[in-house]
Design brief:
Elements lengths: L3 E4 L5 E4 L2 H33 L8 H10 L2 H9 L3 H8 L3 H8 L7 H11 L8
Antiparallel strand pairs: 1-2
Helix pairs in contact: 1-2, 2-3, 3-6
Length: about 130
Amino acid sequence: MKPQIIRTETGEELVVLTRREYDALLATIDGEAIEDRDAARITDAYLIEEAAGQPAAIPHWFVKLVVEHGSPVAAARAHGGGTQADLSKATGIPQDAIIRFERAEADPDDGQRQRIASCTGVALDWLG
């Protein structure tokens, strides 16, 4: 079933979804909340260091990428300029694991972090 959009008299749009589509949307929102918390953690650490006059452990440009892409792994991949499939091939990490890391559903282990950092040109400690 294709979602229906109903426009009210005030111009507000109401969307009618199947239960399956609604559940999938809720799962996405949950994943986005996790990504937002991860991005906020990195941003907060950067702002605290900056306010204290300390050189930031994570450069401003990488913090921006994390905020834009939602997770350190997604930011590193964006910096490296490849796709999830490219990163999977370069690191030997299965693509479904890369997807879970980018959605903050799982954390890469130390070896995986090292391979991601090496293949994307970011510092290991920027990945968490």
